[in-house]
UniProtKB/TrEMBL annotation:
Keywords: Oxidoreductase. The keyword ATP-binding does not apply. Its EC number is 1.-.-.-. One of its GO terms (molecular function) is oxidoreductase activity. Residues 8-289 form the Luciferase-like domain. It comes from the Bacteria. CDD domains: Tetrahydromethanopterin_reductase. This is TIGR03557 family F420-dependent LLM class oxidoreductase.
Length: 322
């Protein structure tokens, strides 16, 4: 079992994210994951730095811990040629410690360039073409590509690592899970859905299976739930909402009726390890073997201490219940 830490880029400035990555390495985490957003989910979050600059700084400040985007949409706001170059550079700067996590994106971040927001079928087709372009460019040399949605014209990534970085593909349904098996090296999800793992493996996927595990550590349950509500209530809206709303103000409105009590069933919370481990067990039972812990509590350093003292050992030895 590999354990990672989710850097909450929407709630912290870039310097603090680098500090947390260094702290996560010291606490024994295997990897750090960072979202690639233009906007935060909520106005109250107040931050959303450029992920690729943060990754470069983390690569320079750390020695062992691996880096993962969770996740990048490689089309609309970007072109996949740019992501192919960015990922290759990050892999070089981190001495091969980088994994490129990709997905079909959210309107929240992609609409800002004024190119519209396609329906899900179109986004999935664009994701497939993006992966084909990235793989093509990583072969080296000048490359061109003409797809239904995307075009690459006589492009070359000059600085390539000897081994391309692995690609983890985010899946919210069986179609994208099969895409992860076809063109990815790993699966990435945010819910303990055994059906997604089954779709991935049945399509031939045999790589790591990443999932984000929601936790909120605090000295008492009420403080933990209040913090989880403040930071992560947007997550309770579900992916069909999360992918479609255009701005933080819309998420503020969509979550107005969500209370701290609503966070109880989703988040491991409070001072004791048992509840946090029970939430993680759901993901392990669903077939995931790379757990990225979300810290929605009010004390980041307190969470790192809690992890090292009470969670690290049990999580590493966690196995699916028979």
């Amino acid at each position: 079992m590999e354990i990672g830490y989710k850097l909450f880029a929407e709630a912290h400035p870039p310097q603090e994210l680098v500090r947390q990555a260094v702290r996560a390495e010291a606490a024994g985490f295997d990897f750090v994951e960072i979202s690639d957003h233009y906007h935060p989910w909520l106005e109250s979050h107040g931050h959303s730095p450029f992920a690729w600059s943060v990754l470069a700084a983390i690569a320079a400040a750390t020695d062992r811990i691996r880096l993962v985007t969770g996740v990048t949409c490689p089309f609309i706001r970007y072109h996949p040629a740019i992501i192919a170059q960015a990922a290759a550079t990050t892999a070089l700067l981190s001495d091969g410690r980088f994994t490129l996590g990709v997905g079909s994106g959210e309107r929240l971040n992609e609409h800002v360039v004024g190119r519209g927001w396609p329906a899900i079928a179109g986004r999935q087709a664009m994701l497939r073409e993006s992966l084909e372009i990235i793989r093509l460019l990583w072969l080296g040399g000048y490359r061109s590509y003409t797809g239904t949605h995307l075009v690459l014209e006589d492009a070359r990534v000059f600085d390539l690592p000897d081994t391309p970085p692995p690609i983890a593909v985010a899946a919210g349904g069986p179609g994208s899970a099969r895409l992860a098996a076809d063109l990815g090296d790993a699966l990435f999800t945010t819910e303990p859905d055994a059906g997604l793992v089954a779709a991935y493996t049945e399509a031939g996927g045999d790589g790591p299976r990443y999932a984000e595990v929601p936790m909120a550590w605090a000295p008492d349950d009420d403080t933990a739930l209040a913090s989880a509500h403040e930071k992560f209530r947007f997550g309770l809206t579900g992916w069909k909402v999360q992918s479609e709303l255009p701005n933080p103000a819309n998420f503020e409105a969509a979550t107005a009726l969500i209370s701290p009590e609503h966070m109880k069933d989703t988040f491991g919370h409070g001072p004791g390890a048992a509840g946090h481990l029970a939430v993680a067990q759901k993901f392990v039972d669903a077939g995931f073997d790379h757990l990225a812990l979300i810290d929605a509590g009010p004390d980041t350093d307190g969470f790192f201490d809690f992890y090292a003292a009470e969670l690290a050992g049990p999580l590493r030895h966690m196995r699916a219940d028979s």
